[in-house]
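Board notes, transcribed. Complex of a protein with adenosine-5'-triphosphate.
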Amino acid sequence: LSYFRRCEKGVHFIDSESDNEELNHKSLSRTEMQLTPKTNGSSLNYSSSSHLNVNLGDSALTKLRKLTELFPHRTSAELMQVIESTSTLDGAVASGLILFGEEGMTSFTYLYSKTYYPCEGRYINLESQDDDTLADEKKESILKKLHNNFPDLDKEELREVLNEHDWSYWEALEALQVFANQEDEVPSESEAKNINGNEITSNFKKQPKEMPLMQLKQTPAAEEQNGKIKKHDKSRKGGRIIQRETSDSEDSEPLSSDGDSSLDEDYSSADEEVEGVCRTKIVSFLQDATLDELTLIPQCSLRKAQKITELRPFNNWETLFQMFQRANGLSEDLIWHCKTIINEREVVHKLMCRCADISQRLEKQVTQIIDDGESNSTIEQPDILNKSLELKAYQLVGLNWLALLHKHHVNGILADEMGLGKTVQAIAFLAFLYQKGDKGPHLITVPASTLDNWIREFKHWCPELKILLYYGSLEDRKLLRSDILHKIVDFNVIVTTYSCSISNADDRSLFRRVKLHYAVFDEGHMLKNMSTIRYQHLMTFNAQHRLLLTGTPLQNNLLELMSLLNFVMPNMFSSSTSEIRRMFSSKAKTSDEQSTFEKGRIAHAKKIMKPFILRRLKSEVLQQLPPKQDRLEICSMSEKQGQAYTALFKKLKRSINRNEKSDLCNVMMQLRKMANHPLLHRQYYTADKLRKMSKLMKKEPTHRDANPDLIFEDMEVMTDFELHLLCQEFGSIRNFQLDKNLLLDSGKFQILEQMLEDLKTQGSRVVLFSQFTMMLDILEVFLKHHKYRYLRMDGKTQISERIHVIDNFNTDMDIFVFLLSTKAGGLGINLTSANVVILHDIDCNPYNDKQAEDRCHRVGQTKTVHIIKLVSKGTIEESMLKNGQQKLKLEHDMTSSETGEEGSIPLNMATLLKASLGL
Ligand SMILES: Nc1ncnc2c1ncn2[C@@H]1O[C@H](COP(=O)(O)OP(=O)(O)OP(=O)(O)O)[C@@H](O)[C@H]1O
């Protein structure tokens, strides 16, 4: 969706949400761009080391020079360690970034992109371009280019990465490379510690070993036995195939940190017997795999997979080879490529076993608690919590779960449904640690919109904990940093926002320098994409333990869930990220086997996540919470709107047929706009009218010297509603204002009119969400027209103002409607004083809608909550709805319990904990 947002021409059509935590990479000072190599200072003093003098080849020297430019405060010995740990310059830079951060480094992005990706004549400096004006075709071509570099990655994933980086090809490439290099070239943890001098919690792992496939060759005896195979092996030693083998192996390498896959162990030996085992694995894989599994073999299309199944049975290695040779279109390479997928499975299997081990350890502990009798071993509400408040039973379970993980040095994700009190449980846990003597420092990173709420909850629940708010202007934060580093302030917990914690090198450096005990990340689903810079930066925070809080851990696919797990348990997962990535991002290609295939993956993912995630649903644990009733309101469009929609649909269809490259996403957005309100397009202000208006504008003192042609051009790209506002603003064109009837003319407004009237009579209070700020503008006209009292909050509302607006709504019962943009009001806020949520327009991601719905349906709600979704009949919105329902099914499959005993919550605390853990 964010892609659509950027495609939008209307600059404030979609809520830009100033605090949406996107990293502003452009903030790097451009005055620092023209760096010249430093020739003085200790950093270039590499000749002082005789070792370096002797061993430095030209390329190492060049690398050292480059790295010295980038990391001027690092010694040559440190830089050399980085260089020696990788084979390429890019790898060295990436490793340097991970190890040293950007501390003391200037304009990394600029230098990196210009210096390491020179592309004479091909460089597209997108950084200077406005997103909104970036042509869609250009975006497609950037996407294509990036996809060429990362053919294994899903295009949508890459689109997201590009979005995260404002469509800067180089920044996206860099982010993905950093990730890839992290997998392939990051030095071992001990090296990292040596270099950095202090501990870094990052994706450290051992150097890749020798590539196993290179050794996948026949023993002389076997070669003699089978001339054909011998020929094959010979061919594999040269050129392309060897290259391919190497890269395959690199991809599927790094294995688990504590050992290699059994397959690699097999191949690392020349022993014939072991070779036999490998062959047996390949034969049995090709014999038993489903169609979808076969298509996971590199270069194996669905057609080839079908052919393989037709050739079955494969009784042994020799017949397998012969059959492949005889079959049309099946190359022997496919047989060898099976190794990649077998390897992946073994890595993931090993991971599952380790996760099962942890589950067992936890289970043992819980059994112990049961045996000891719960009063001795379970943790009660910490004494320092506000005595007038009481944790609910499931919250105590949450606290016990957190304490259990802590005891076993395991990090986790508290993924209770929205509104169950994750904030409160996290605070209770920090209070528990405090009582045990762990006084921090801890860090809580939250979206800006929930910052005030966190501070308030801390004060409310645990005033004894000293909270330091790390938030403010650059200057404010500078002072705060100095106070923190010089220990001038006394605190237990730092609370900050995602933006403030990583927006510049000094912020990031602070959280690498302060030795944090716990780092808690609220709305942790913001870390669902491990390729983003935000993810990478937050990974480097110097925290002993991490805890993620999220109400929507699973959104689009299992890979996102794995990203979250990797974030909290990098030691466990980082060595398997490439396997995980492939295993969980590939899609089933056949529909008939989809369910078995998906079921298998879901079962795997469940096993992996079991020890690390605690998720309770409101329906399970909050029996006393009033129900939530969903209502779908399919709205027929108004007559004019329907005609305009059909005309637009036909026009867009023609344009798609004419130009295949036309951006489908943009087409979708155009249709969505029309489905919501016709004034989000321009049709009433014809070119003729605009010509007249642009001439009249010259009468305005502000436009006296303006060129009417240019005014006309500006007007041409505005929507009807924007032009209407312009007419309200300038007296000379006031006559051109739109008639009220047109402003109120939409199918959804027709439904809303009666609906709001009824709700008002019933004494209900309404929270009304839209994703589009301009839609909120038109809704304001509608509410004013009907004389309803309302409040509004969107991305433009000052952060400091937000809590007051929310309090206002929660305390002044005469305010009937709260207008909210999904971005600004969808996360983390409490609006239990309302009992109706209307989603004027649905989101492509149903979890964003769920987040919005649960602002009212949460602890503290006393009335039945009605969720009403408005969907325009016969429009693109109906397809979006269907798509969304499929996405929600994945979550349902993941969270449904195998035994089907949901809802029955045992009272005994330890048993409750056990049930919650799924043990
Ligand atoms: N035990 C309790 N007693 C009284 N109020 C509670 C209790 N637990 C939670 N609350 C209140 O319930 C509301 C929801 O809690 P909280 O904001 O922590 O939920 P959450 O799970 O973090 O939600 P989200 O995922 O939407 O951020 C808050 O107003 C909180 O103060």
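DSSP finds 45 helices and 13 strands in the chain. Residues 642-742 form one domain.
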